[in-house]
Amino acid sequence: MKLSVVIPVYNEELTIKEIIDRVLAVPIDKEMIVVDDGSTDRTPEILKSTKDKVTVVYNSLINIGKGAAIRIGFEQVKGDIIIIQDADLELDPSEYPRIIEPIIEGRADVVYGSRFFGGRGMRETNLTNYLANKLLTHLTNILYGSHLTDMETAYKCFRLDVIKKMRLKSIGFEIEPELTAKALRLGYKIYEVPISYHPRRISEGKKIGFMDGIKAIYFLFKYRFCKMKEIKR
Ligand SMILES: Nc1nc2c(ncn2[C@@H]2O[C@H](COP(=O)(O)OP(=O)(O)OP(=O)(O)O)[C@@H](O)[C@H]2O)c(=O)[nH]1
Ligand SMILES: [Mg+2]
Predict the structure, then answer these.
(1) Is 231 among the domain residues?
(2) 116/195 Cα distance (integer angstroms)
(3) What was the pLDDT predicted at 51?
């Protein structure tokens, strides 16, 4: 089975080369689709030098957001399994084999890498972020009857047909609750696998902020109660 790695990237000149190399080093059949929308640092230049190894999609010269970039990446995928990879170094691609295993073995349709159970190692994290993650995950479980430990994780992995069934609309970071809500409303169980986590700080380039947390709450409610035609293609 082939893995499609979709990498949304915006102004990540410090880490983009390293993350591409780390993905390339994973010994599995895969393709990499990098979606950059309007980076203003050296990211586009660095991507040009790697274009024989990865598919680079320039979304537009104007910055839109992580959600829009992921949706564009999803339109390009040719693999059987899709994983989202952030372009920072918070999560480690060497963990792909464990993450995709439940899908390969037919035990799962959707797998999330959880930072908060199983203890595979975590650098000290910002307390506000940690509590926001806990709150959003808890709210998801109450609204959707799930048992997740990490709804906001960036390591979200799907069988291709699951993604193809979803009608996705997100522009920014609300893509995380949208993917979760729509997978659960479509009746899929989300399987979690423990992963390690090395959080970066805002000063190191983290872009998600307080308003993204508020938006996540809004979208969790919206997608819980909206009509099925907004969920399913
Ligand atoms: N193409 C594109 N990528 C983006 C944009 N905003 C963020 N990203 C990418 O999305 C990934 C996650 O951004 P981070 O700032 O690390 O956010 P985070 O706090 O780790 O949040 P998570 O989405 O939960 O991982 C990184 O690879 C960013 O470069 C955007 O506007 N456009
Ligand atoms: Mg990140």
Answers:
(1) no
(2) 8
(3) 84
- Please name which ligand lies nearest the alpha carbon of 89: 2
Alpha helix stretches (DSSP H) within 145-229? 160-165, 175-185, 210-225
Please write the tens of the pLDDT for every residue from 169-216.
999 999 999 999 999 999 999 999 999 998 887 777 778 888 999 999
Q: Quick check: is 233 in a domain? A: no
- Predicted pLDDT of residue 206: 75
CATH of the domain at 55: 3.90.550.10
Give yes or no for residue 35 CB within 6 A of ligand 1: yes
Tell whether 144 is covered by a domain.
yes
Report the number of distinct structural domains present in the chain. 1
Asked if residue 47 has its Cβ within 6 Å of ligand 1, the reply is: no
Write the residue with the smallest CA distance to atom 28 of ligand 1. Answer: 9
